[in-house]
Write a structure and sequence with these properties.
Elements lengths: L4 E3 L2 E3 L3 E3 L8 H10 L4 E2 L3 E2 H7 L4 H5 L22 H14 L4 E6 L9 H7 L4 E5 L11 H16 L6 E5 L6 H10 L4 E4 L7 E3 L4 E3 L11 H10 L6 E5 L5 H10 L3 E4 L1 H6 L3 H15 L5 H4 L11 H15 L5
Parallel strand pairs: 3-13, 4-6, 5-6, 6-7, 7-8, 8-9, 9-12, 12-13
Antiparallel strand pairs: 1-2, 10-11
Helix pairs in contact: 8-9, 9-11
């Protein structure tokens, strides 16, 4: 079977790419993922706040609101809660490039176009083959209109692109009024790839300590439906590579997102829950299915279930919405 695919201009041996997670914090673990069959690895994110905190630029945000509700100001992590400092992060990428043969994709997590974007160049110089720009921002201020948020994303992408020559993918959330238009804007602004989607992490309250606490739960394959839908809509409408992430746990999930039009399938929760060996098992499952269904390569099936040939995708989605609601039959 020919599992090869191209993502961000990189020729990969297969579409399985472990996404940014704690698994990439250790060189031996990344080597183990390579041995299990991973085609590339996205390193965990370096945050804008880490970089700006080192330069003292984050003091305003850490102290803003301190005269109001003390219970609500613990949402920013302390510096010692990050795994590595920015300089250690660069050293880690350099070490990974010495130890593994698969592409290493760095990750920057931020939203503004401040001085932190210069670290994109540092990541490139450390040896990263590509960069994933993780744009995670919750538009909580009711006085900020949508176009301002969208422009901020575009400006940040352009700032990062102006600093590097390696390909840049944008990882974003699905919560835009016109997701397809936002994808097109990022594509036209120079994004080499789109990673769909960022999970929407929602904190909890500790009623005993009166604190805001993180509450991270691993994904389930139901979450794969959202990137599956949008990749099927975007395939053929943007030049950028497409990566599916969130909710990918099995070989069936991988095959589905490839048929929707994804170039790669990114996964983390499945590996965290059931071990790195799952990569090899997923590849074996893909091979069996492709042989049984007479597919000789990934490229043949890519986009075969997309909406590329649908004249009006919005009408198609509306019809599917109604059909889905009508498909549930009660016992009444």
């Amino acid at each position: 079977m020919d599992f090869s695919t191209k993502y961000l201009g990189l020729q990969l041996k297969n579409p399985i790419v472990p996404s940014a997670s704690p698994l990439s914090q250790n060189v031996d673990t990344v080597k183990a993922m390579e041995d299990a069959g991973a085609a590339a690895v996205v390193v965990y994110s370096l945050f804008e706040e880490q970089i700006t905190h080192e330069s003292g630029e984050l003091d305003h945000y850490l102290t803003y609101g301190s005269e109001s509700y003390a219970e609500a100001i613990n949402y920013f992590p302390e510096p010692n809660e990050f795994y590595l400092t920015p300089y250690q992060y660069l050293d880690h990428i350099a070490n990974l490039k010495k130890e593994v043969n698969i592409p290493i994709i760095g990750s920057l997590n931020g939203v503004s176009k401040g001085g932190w974007v210069k670290y994109a160049k540092n990541i490139e110089e450390a040896g990263a083959d590509a960069l994933e720009l993780n744009l995670y921002y919750v538009a909580a201020n009711p006085n900020v209109p949508a176009n301002i948020i969208e422009d901020m994303y575009i400006d940040t992408l352009k700032a990062v692109k102006s600093n590097v020559k390696i390909p840049v993918a944008v990882k974003l959330s699905p919560y835009f009024t016109s997701m397809a238009n936002m994808a097109k804007k990022l594509d036209e602004a120079g994004a080499d790839g789109l990673v769909l989607f960022n999970r929407f992490y929602q904190p909890d309250f500790d009623l005993d300590k009166l604190e805001v606490v993180p509450n991270l739960m691993l994904s389930t394959n139901w979450e794969m439906r959202l990137p599956l839908r949008w990749i099927a809509i975007l395939y053929g409408n943007v030049k950028a590579s497409l990566a599916a992430t969130s909710g990918i746990h099995s070989y069936e999930d991988v095959l589905k997102v490839i048929m929707a039009g994804a170039d790669v399938a990114m996964l983390a929760s499945e590996l965290l829950a059931n071990g790195i060996g799952r990569i090899k098992e997923i590849l074996k499952g893909m091979a069996r299915w492709m042989e049984d269904n007479e597919y000789s390569s990934i490229e043949i099936m890519k986009g075969s279930m997309s909406q590329k040939s649908v004249a009006d995708p919005a009408a198609f989605e509306r019809a599917n919405y109604m059909k889905t609601l009508q498909s549930y039959k009660t016992l009444l």
